[in-house]
Amino acid sequence: MSFSRLYETLVSDIDYGDIEVFLLDHLKKNQGVLDVGCGTGIFSLFLKKQGFDVTGIDSDSEMLAMFEEKQRDMQLHIPVFEHDIRKPLNRTFNQMILLNDVINYFKGVKQVLKNLSNALENNGQILIDFYKEEYLSVMKDYVEDEVSPVVYRWEIFVKHCQMTHQITYKEQVYRFNQYIYPLNYYLDRFKEVGLNSELIDGPDERKHYVKLTKKDN
């Protein structure tokens, strides 16, 4: 099984209801939404069914293929594009979301944020979440052995600001890294690329939630 399909299986039983309420509370239905790091379309599909005009981008072609499979099954159409957000976007959007700790997958975030800022329309907004710094100590040497929905082991190793996930399924071992920095690191990067930041309440107490808007010229 590929990592993308395994990951989709492992998160299939997560209840995203609180995040869906969060999205409806903060997004404007009359404005388009770019789902950055959309994966297999968890949030894009929800927003589409709520009447939003959604576009999805992700750098993982297999996850996008799974997203398109879901669309066909649901008889929905959402434009999706394979794109690495470390590269500039070729159009602008009024609203963007980077949820499910997408930003934590980047070791450095300034270029990513600069590209997003350049693609954000005036008076637009970006909703973003990222792990709090104390999450590193909470997850150090974490081990999870599960038998449902499949038999697997999920381990986490922490070194400085890097959190390495290791998932063992049958005889396959998959690894990926996330990077967790102090809140002020992110606030400084937002400011450097011309974005105002406002901390807002969100559904997951392990994370910071921030609303970003363009600075006034």
From TrEMBL:
<dbReference type="GO" id="GO:0032259">
    <property type="term" value="P:methylation"/>
</dbReference>
<keyword id="KW-0808">Transferase</keyword>
<dbReference type="GO" id="GO:0008168">
    <property type="term" value="F:methyltransferase activity"/>
</dbReference>
<protein>
    <submittedName>
        <fullName>Methyltransferase domain protein (Type 11)</fullName>
    </submittedName>
</protein>
<dbReference type="InterPro" id="IPR029063">
    <property type="entry name" value="SAM-dependent_MTases_sf"/>
</dbReference>
<keyword id="KW-0489">Methyltransferase</keyword>
<dbReference type="Pfam" id="PF13489">
    <property type="entry name" value="Methyltransf_23"/>
</dbReference>
